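Dear colleague,

Following up on Tuesday's group meeting, I ran the structure prediction for the two-component complex that the binding team flagged. I've pasted the input sequences exactly as they went in, so you can double-check that nothing got truncated or mislabelled along the way. The structure tokens for the whole assembly follow below. Feel free to forward this to whoever is handling the docking comparison.

Inputs:
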Amino acid sequence: MPDSTPKPLSAIEIGDEIGPLTRTLTLADVQRYAAVTSLTDERFLKAERATQMGFHRPIVPGPLTATLLAKLLTDSFPGWRLRNFQVSFRTPVGHGDTLAFWGTVTEKGERDGVATIHCDVVVENQHGDRVIVGTATLVPRPHAERTLS
Amino acid sequence: MIHFDPQLLGKEVELGTFPVTAEAIRAFAEAVGDLNPLYLDRAAARQAGYPEVIAPPTFCMHLRGGRMLPEVPLPPGMVSLHAGQELEFYDEILAGQTYTATAKVTEVYEKTGRSGPLGVIVREMTIRNAAGSPVVVLRERQIIRSPEKKI
């Protein structure tokens, strides 16, 4: 369970590293995600269908990988919430790929009187390929607004 | 490559009304392994300033369901890929609230990628609360490509 003590802006520096979190995503992970998002596309679940659709093997839905990246951010910055989260899916993730999720704080400050932090985020597979690159902006959660700035 | 009626560009379609329950949030959080107390424990959520448990950021994918809407017919023999997404969060999705969602296609264009010609479809989904205020805006890029070159 992540530390839930709100992290003040003063404790966050430009260049701070986020993560890494390492996860191997399996068919069982995809099945659980598919069940709660009503995802029925068989390229995510069956090898034969994945091959027919132009993939070497069944793939992990991009939004599932992005969900784990979002978790890394909210776990790393207790008391903060995502305001903007942008990701590009650059290379398919196959079942069994081991992914490293990480990021870097690129800016901090105030925008319209609200404390704000900006991050670059990356997900890399076991071959060193960047499967996701993106950015995130975080702002304080309601009760943390007065204490985090 | 993509045959799309340009009059449909920007035309909003209703995706429906979505009551959000604490149970649905818990099911999503457990499925993706995100056991943050804000998603599971009402007391923790209240301590953070929320009236009820909140949903993980990408719970809106649950509201969207498995299909990208509005649907755009794919050219015969072509397949699609999810190329990226941008989420703007104006507020949290709360248990016990009912939300509505609308979606539209905002861009359709073609380009040449590493594997040959590609079609790109950009959609925008807006989730609103009962007062009609936007809570989450989700923009997604879908790429249309030939399945011949395996990736």
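The longest strand of chain A covers residues 98-111.

Cheers,
M.
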